[in-house]
Amino acid sequence: MADNNENQGFIKRFLALPTDSVPKTLFVAVALCLVASMIVSAAAVALRPQQAINALKDKQVNILQVAGIYDPNTDVIEAFGAFEPQVLELETGLFTDEFDIATFDDRKAADDPATSVALTDDPAGIGRQGKFVTVYLLRDDTGGVDKVILPIHGYGLWSTLYGFIALEENGNDIFGLQFYEHAETPGLGAEVDNPRWKALWSGKKLADDNGDLQISVTKAVPAAGEEYHVDALAGATLTTAGVHNLVNFWMGEAGYKPFLENLKAGGL
Question: Lowest CB count within 10 Å: 54, 117, 191, 217, which one?
């Protein structure tokens, strides 16, 4: 009973304080913060499914764009139906039915020790590499492969850049490259999003006639020639180096080379 009386006395004394007193000001501030945080948390939870849908749609738009078939007047889901997604085993360069393509998540697979490998030689700066990735085939009217869209990622200056590279049916000619997620410096490394720079990739080649990888993203044209060269981003040395490294990593032996060899052999 004494404790109850003391509590009531405290409440009465608190209510009797002037409105602009320090205790009342602090109480209102804390109460507002708590209410606001609960509202924000509830909104984040409620919007999470929509955020996932928007992220998937943005990814699909980027795939359509890098393949050169994006039309803002066409429904994204309808347009994306032109692609044939497949889960690829990197080591063999062959498709696998071990996973459900509708639910397979490349990033989760890359974080799972059961479906990934820790890299010791890691020029792309990704730490772990998934053994399986989702690739996208775009076929022509006869059913043959017209283009392949391959996911790529690697570290730049401040962030991991996630994107896609589109290759022609020969597995060597680049149709396009673009990134859909990164946190590089606006006006410098973020110029990877500049349409003029992205256009430089179209028509470039990955490897020479001997199959040796030659593609470079540098200031100077390499000895291999202009057809293997993309100009560096002005003032963004480390981002440029990151793009060069990640493209060479993913197009090399540890990445898509086995798949590209199968593609050239006409086995898809």
Answer: 54
